[in-house]
Design brief:
It is a single chain. Strand 9 (about 200-205), helix 9 and strand 10 (about 225-230) form a beta-alpha-beta unit. Strands 3-2-4-5-7-6 form a six-stranded parallel β-sheet, sandwiched between helices. It is globular and about 70 Å long. The chain has 23 helices and 20 strands. Helix 1 (about 5-15) packs across helix 2 and helix 9 runs parallel beside helix 12. It is of the alpha/beta class and about 550 residues long. It binds thiamine diphosphate. Thiamine diphosphate binds next to helix 17 and helix 19.
Length: about 550
């Protein structure tokens, strides 16, 4: 006999949970220790909001279900923003949320956890009794894994404490999942559309990551150009016919090439306002959307043809149909376009007007310089705000495991915890965060976590002593009105050193010598770059808001 909490921890480890993030209180002490005793690694965050974003980033990069362990009630509410972000991004995440004992509605910790979870778009599940707890938990793990959802499994503390026998036959240990496939007729039709097109473009979203090699092959046969959505940046990196990123982060030249397409096929991509620049990139093209979720088709943009199917299976079926008919197409792949792609691919090659203001560094010049200095084998994580375009678009990424954009909820402040999750997921790479001072300070307490984990992570704080986005969104505001979004200059480097980080203050490119020195050090702690930047609107802000 064993306690339910011990059985659940052991079974989740057996099902494949390797990594747990959380903040431990009385309600999740036992289940978390059971996971650790069965081989899972645990990272103690300093705030549940941080733990949630760490788990989210970890699972985005690895594709594995990680666990987020929370105390009942307030542990869950503290984590809700990160849980919302994960749910919106379809991160396969299992939240183990302790809950008050069944019927104990007068406990201080009591809230209606299922209603809270439902409200933010995650999937509420719970263990219902000691007898069903193991099966309930296995089901929750499977739903998170197979449906790619964020499941919050509530664990009432009285049920956790009950005694059960560990089951001999484990649920879900033998699961086969069949993916939807496309008929030969539909594959042939899609193939014909592609070979007829003169300027076809394939946009790959996060759902294209599993199909990236097939999509490169399909694009090669049909003369299509390739480009990633923001969320999937890096997915086609290295292909000579691929542009970097579609939408808000596009260079002008890349946006032009997408806008001139006569056929656009989105694979596993939402085609939202960011990826399509409010739909303007799709206006001239016939648009096809391939996704394994029917509710994704036409959700953000109406499309001419929707195909519900596994992105890889669809790509392979179309390649086979084209091979059978021996059809191929030069399409968009002309020498002139090759030259345009080379010039338009990266932001770091674009002319960007820089501002010369003594004592402050231009954020574009800073980012391009860091891009050249930092090792290419990296994971880039990007926070929100006015400055987000610089790390988001100027720092190059090696592949689709090298980029995390925790902005599905457009919440600022998730960057620091996300970069910690990314660094834990990819200890072989250098993790780099680009964040504003406002965003960083929202979750700065996790600097301690990064130091404790000895993460050699680079944190670029674009410090304009303001919520810059709000200043540039309201250019006609009076100085008095702007006061509510301006702050005194904060010595972020000193704060970071206080937590145990290495830190430098940067006011000019010459100060980046400190980065070179750190790169040559043991890199056993984070480097925080407090970059005092010129406070101007980013090119993205200027384009979107016309100033
Ligand atoms: C949780 C949350 N609160 C408020 C906002 C509104 N908001 C968007 S950008 C921003 C300012 C961000 O400041 P900072 O991180 O310093 O970046 P900057 O805009 O200065 O580049 C705010 C408050 C938000 N998106 N998310």
């Amino acid at each position: 006999m064993m306690k339910v909490a011990d059985a659940l921890g052991r079974m989740l480890a057996e099902l494949g949970v390797k990594q747990v993030f959380g903040v431990v209180g009385s309600g999740n002490f036992r289940v978390t220790n059971a996971l650790v005793a069965s081989g899972a690694a645990f990272v103690a965050a300093r705030h549940e909001a941080g733990a949630a974003s760490m788990a989210d980033a970890y699972s985005r990069i690895t594709g594995e279900v990680s666990a987020l362990s929370l105390h009942q009630g307030c542990g869950l509410t503290n984590a809700l923003t990160g849980i919302t972000e994960a749910a919106k991004c379809h991160t396969p995440l299992l939240v183990l949320a302790a809950d008050t004992a069944v019927g104990d509605v007068t406990s201080n910790f009591h809230i209606d956890q299922d209603a809270a979870v439902q409200a933010v778009g995650a999937t509420p599940m719970r263990i219902h009794s000691a007898e069903t707890a193991v099966a309930d938990t296995a089901r929750a793990f499977r739903v998170a894994q197979v449906e790619r959802t964020t499941v919050v499994l509530s664990l009432p503390i009285d049920i956790q404490d009950a005694e059960i026998a560990y089951p001999g036959r484990r649920p879900a240990s033998n699961l086969r999942v069949t993916t939807p496939v496309i008929s030969t007729g539909d594959a042939t039709e899609l193939g014909e559309m592609l070979v007829r097109a003169r300027r076809p473009v394939i946009i790959g979203g996060r759902g294209s990551r599993v199909a990236k090699h097939d999509l490169r092959e399909l694009a090669a046969v049909t003369g299509a150009l390739l480009i990633a959505s923001g969320g999937a940046r890096g997915v086609f990196e290295g292909d000579e016919w691929a542009l970097d990123v579609s939408g808000g982060f596009s260079t002008d030249g890349a946006a032009e090439l997408v806008r001139d397409a006569d056929l656009i096929i989105g694979f596993g991509v939402a085609l939202n306002n960011w990826t399509t620049r409010g739909g303007t990139l799709l206006e001239k093209a016939t648009v096809v959307q391939v996704d394994d979720r029917v509710d994704a088709i036409g959700k953000h943009r109406l499309v001419d043809l929707g195909i519900v199917g596994d992105t890889g299976a669809v790509a392979r079926a179309v390649i086979a149909a084209l091979a059978a008919s021996e059809a191929s197409n030069v399409g968009y792949r002309t020498p002139e376009v090759a030259d345009r792609i080379r010039r338009a691919r990266y932001w770091s090659d674009q002319e960007v007007e820089t501002v010369d203001e003594p004592g402050f560094i231009d954020p574009a010049a800073l980012t391009n310089a860091l891009d050249a200095m930092l090792p290419e084998d990296r994971v880039v994580v990007v926070d929100g705000g006015n400055v987000n375009a610089y790390p988001g678009a100027h720092l190059r990424v090696p592949d689709d495991n090298g980029y995390v954009l925790p902005l599905s909820f457009q919440s600022i402040g998730l960057g620091l915890a996300s970069v910690i999750g990314a660094a834990v997921a990819r200890p072989d790479r250098i993790a780099v965060l680009g964040t504003g001072d406002g965003s960083l300070l929202m979750g700065a307490v996790e600097l301690e976590t990064a130091v404790r984990l000895r993460l050699g992570t680079v944190i670029i704080a674009y410090n304009d002593s303001a919520y810059g986005a709000e200043i540039h969104l309201f250019p006609d505001a009076t100085p008095e009105e702007q006061e509510i979004v301006r702050f005194p200059d904060t010595d972020i480097a000193a704060i970071a050193r206080g937590y145990g980080c290495d830190a430098i203050t940067v006011r000019s490119l010459d100060d980046l010598d400190g980065v070179s020195a750190w790169l040559e050090s043991d890199r056993d702690r984070p480097l925080v770059i407090d970059a005092k930047i010129t406070g101007r609107a980013s090119w993205l802000m200027a384009r979107e808001h016309g100033h």
